Fold this sequence. Notes:
Elements: H1 15-27, E1 35-38, H2 47-55, E2 59-62, H3 72-85, E3 88-91, E4 99-102, H4 111-116, H5 131-139, H6 143-159
Parallel strand pairs: 1-2
Antiparallel strand pairs: 3-4
Amino acid sequence: MTQWQVVASVQTIAQNHLLPVIEQMLARFPFEILGFRADNGSEYVNHRVAQMLDKLRVEFTRSRPRRSNDNGLAETKNGAVVRKLFATDVAHPKKPGRIKRVYRPKDAMTPLDKLAGLPEAVSFLPQGVTLEDLQAMATALTDMQAAKELNEARLALFRRSP
């Protein structure tokens, strides 16, 4: 048994954007795929993904929410980054004493947005760098353009011979 990782980016984490990317990623694997483990997100757990994997005779399993042992790579990243930085804990409306994590749009921000929101943000910048410079760099490309440039640079790097 081995693990292979393929990195891809999508416009949004939604079925219509994710399904074609999953198909492309599976096509890039250099060996037969026996299993596919995903979290419980609806972008993965749906009939179209199940049909695609069934056609390939790939076993499809799901991890349990917040169980880092089930899907170590995704769950530990989610636990360390997403849940700590982008969630607001509120009392569960139907279960007294329990906490529900709510992901509000105002809580989700890029590292630059987080830096800019700090009271003394300028004091953390190197001399000669301004928040305006960083904002201009951040908005120079769309997310899709930046992902394309990253993939092209990565391919060029791997094409170079030692």
